[in-house]
Amino acid sequence: MNRIIENRFFNIKKLIPKNVKILAVSKNQDIYSIKKLYCVGHRDFGENYIQEMVEKYKKLPKDIRWHMIGRIQSNKLKYIIPFIHLIHSVQNIKQINRINKIALKHHKIINCLLQIKICNEKNKSGITSQEAIKILKSDTYKEMKNVKIIGLMGMASFQDFEKVHNEFSSLCKLYNEYKYKYGHYILSMGMSRDYDIAIKYGSTIVRLGTIIFGDRKKTI
Questions:
Q1: What is d(CA 153, CA 188) in angstroms, rounded to the nearest whole number?
Q2: Structurally, how many domains does the chain consist of?
Q3: Which of 15, 52, 121, 135 has the least CB density, counted as fewest CB within 10 Å?
Q4: How do residues 133-188 score in pLDDT, each as one tens digit?
Q5: 58: containing domain
């Protein structure tokens, strides 16, 4: 039996401290590949697109902890609020308000992370530290009962590893500041190409896709 995915997972798990959670990024991976990790005990999976996540949720065991790590589509949030574990990519008060309203209907409290822009690449989105502070201090957010911001997320530059160190360092400093002011306890940073650097700067969740699954299969 082909055990490539399981072997990759266990090999990478040996390199990662026990206090750091592995989020298996299952975007464009098929059900069979996800089940391989599930069967060896892994439960945290991340998706970029709501529709793809919903389809996989329907077909897979219900004790999987689903993480939304892609751009938030406000008009589709209603489909994942009933089962989502953590939303990593919140960027404005309108999104938070929308999440809160839907969560209220389902009698749930939804945990979220603020996505901070730490690099200058056009395809990497996020907000500034000033914008994050404005959200966290706003009366609008403070009055919400069904959504809770519990940390920060960021994506570093693609290939310039000197920049990656600086970007992760800056996000770590911001996280440490917010941790004491706002009770944050999750720092989501680091991907397949730079997770080792992210861990050095205090990441509590690393988002790993190709290093575990290999090339994306582009099918559910």
A1: 5
A2: 1
A3: 15
A4: 999 999 999 999 999 999 999 999 987 889 999 999 999 999 999 999 999 999 99
A5: 4-213
